[in-house]
Specification:
The chain is of the alpha/beta class. The chain has one domain: Transcription Regulator spoIIAA. It contains 4 helices and 6 strands; from the N terminus they run ββαββαβαβα. Strands 1, 2, 3, 4, 5 and 6 form a 6-stranded mixed sheet that branches. Strand 2, helix 1 and strand 3 form a beta-alpha-beta unit. Helix 1 packs parallel to helix 2. The longest helix has 16 residues.
């Protein structure tokens, strides 16, 4: 089971998955993001600084969250990527869709 913490900063939900974001744990992140958006918090930053590994299932969870957020009139941003997570994003060209921010503070700017 993956630990996922959520807090509200400047009116934006900051979601922090810890550990490995894989086929086993991605549904947990997907659920947390969907529930957060469902509760009326359509602007979400996923802080990936505590995520040391991500596979295609993790990417799928992020893309699902992005779609859900946009349908609700918000957006999903990602921040604090480690080297492995960055590489996965670049290899799949999804860094064009999910533009990475260096930090949560950076991602919170300009909503």
């Amino acid at each position: 089971m993956m630990q996922v913490e959520t807090e509200i900063q400047d009116g934006v939900a900051v979601v922090r998955p810890q550990g490995r974001l894989t086929m086993v744990t991605a549904p947990e992140l997907r659920k947390v993001v969907a529930d957060t958006i469902g509760s009326g918090q359509a602007r979400v930053v996923v802080d990936l600084s505590g995520t040391e590994f991500m596979d295609s299932s993790g990417l799928g969870a992020l893309i699902a969250g992005l779609k859900t957020a946009r349908q609700a009139g918000g957006d999903l941003r990602i921040a604090g990527l480690g080297p492995q997570v960055s590489t996965v994003l670049q290899l799949t060209n999804l860094d064009r869709v999910l533009r990475p921010h260096g930090s949560v503070a950076e991602a919170l700017r300009g909503w």
